[in-house]
Description:
By secondary structure, the chain is of the alpha+beta class. It has helices at 34-42, 95-140, and strands at 10-12, 28-30, 46-48, 58-59, 64-65, 69-77, 80-89. A three-stranded antiparallel β-sheet has the order 3-6-7. It has a two-stranded antiparallel sheet with strand order 1-2. Strands 4-5 form a two-stranded antiparallel sheet.
Amino acid sequence: METSDHHPAYLKLLSSYAYRERKHLSNRFHLGEGVVGQCALEKERILITSIPDDYIKIGSGLGEATPANVVVLPVVFEEQVTAVIELASFRHFNEVHLTFLDQLTESIGIVLNTIAASMRTEELLKQSQSLAEELQTQQKN
């Protein structure tokens, strides 16, 4: 999730696995835009069980086929969506799969928050060190 004081929040594709970029599909989604944006807006899992043949294909070296299910999961930490994960599968997601994925996204939210906090701390430490060096330089003069 990208946020700024200058524009509305939006989701930006940062990583994918076995995904081939296609010209007519966006890599950015505003809240409520498409299934990814709707998932972020509602902060709820979305399970798509009837996949049209031309929606998406899962491909390998041996062939490709339409998935049986697509699940879109919000990654939430302290009521804020930090990311959305979209998964497609040849098999139907059952309740055990969905429960596992829900719990996994909770853990991912905690990990992402920890990483962000560590990055902020590191940046503040660098700023502090820079100011200390500048102060030492001023005191020598």
